[in-house]
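Please describe our next protein:
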Amino acid sequence: MIWSRSRRAAIERAAVERADAERALIEQAQAERAAVERAARIRLLNTDLEVLRSTAIERTRQTETKASFIVVAAGVLASAAGIELIKTETWLAGLVPFTLTIATVVVAAVALWPRLLNVPSARKITNRWVDSDKSLDDLDDYLLETKVVEIELRDKQNETRATWTKGGFVLLLISLFTALLVATANALSPLWSDDVQERIQAPATSEAPSAS
């Protein structure tokens, strides 16, 4: 009877140990699968973030190219018809397109102004992690977060640059339109002067015979 009880207890202990071993194997397999899935997610995220980062850099380059074009176009407009449009015959109306051209250059310069990215440099990342006692998972998390922050900052800067660039285009078009108007007014100003001169001289001529 005692032997049966001890045998039963031994069988139960063996069953418990077997169950614990199976549970440990299952947990280990789940942990390994989770690690593999996490590594795969990190690879996908890294690939996607690199694409987004390249896109953000390309948007910055395109915006800077447009802003540079605005500066060049405004400079050409100012040199071609800037000071020459300012005439007393048209009440110094040429100051309007000239001022708008200067404002265009200023707005485009703001769009081109260098902006710093508040993210760790490659040297800082290397110095921080090359001898770190933290795990590779921590390093992966840090690198991913650094890329996300960089992309967010670049997108924000691109939105600001795009706003200033759009304003520069608007000012450039307005300055070009007003320059054409003032140039037309300057071209017609001699005709206005002659017409006014004829109107002034006509009464004087008609009054001359009556005075005699």
Notes: The chain has a mean pLDDT of 82. The chain has four helices and no strands. The first helix runs from residue 2 to 81. The helical segments are 2-81, 95-112, 122-129, 136-211.
